[in-house]
Amino acid sequence: MEKLAAFYPEHIKKEDKHFFFPVMEYFSREEMDRMLEDFYKFDRKLIHDFFRDKVEGYETDK
């Protein structure tokens, strides 16, 4: 766990500064907006699925 905790900050920094933002220059504003909207849709569904699964798990444990 210590190795993982030490690894992540540098890894995230590398992704943010040397990958994510430079890659964004290859997309048009419309493409970026569409990707962001797709991400929001995915994220909303993911959180709903997570909590639905939790509730269903509690219901079946009764």
Could you characterize the architecture of this molecule?
With 62 residues, the protein is mainly α. The chain has two helices and no strands. The protein has helices spanning 2-24, 29-61.
The helicity comes to: over 70%
Alpha-beta content class: mainly alpha
Strand content: under 5%
Report the sheet with the most strands, covering strand number, pairing sense and barrel closure.
none
> What do the pLDDT scores average to?
88
Oligomer, anyone?
A: single chain
Large-scale geometry = flat
Beta strands, count:
0
Task: Give start-end ranges of low-pLDDT stretches.
Answer: none
Written as H for each helix and E for each strand, in order along the chain, the element string is: HH
Gap between N and C termini? 35 Å
List the keywords:
62 residues, mainly alpha, 90% helix, 0% strand
Chart the SSEs and their pairings.
Blueprint: H1 2-24, H2 29-61
Summarize this, please?
The protein is mainly alpha-helical and 62 residues long.
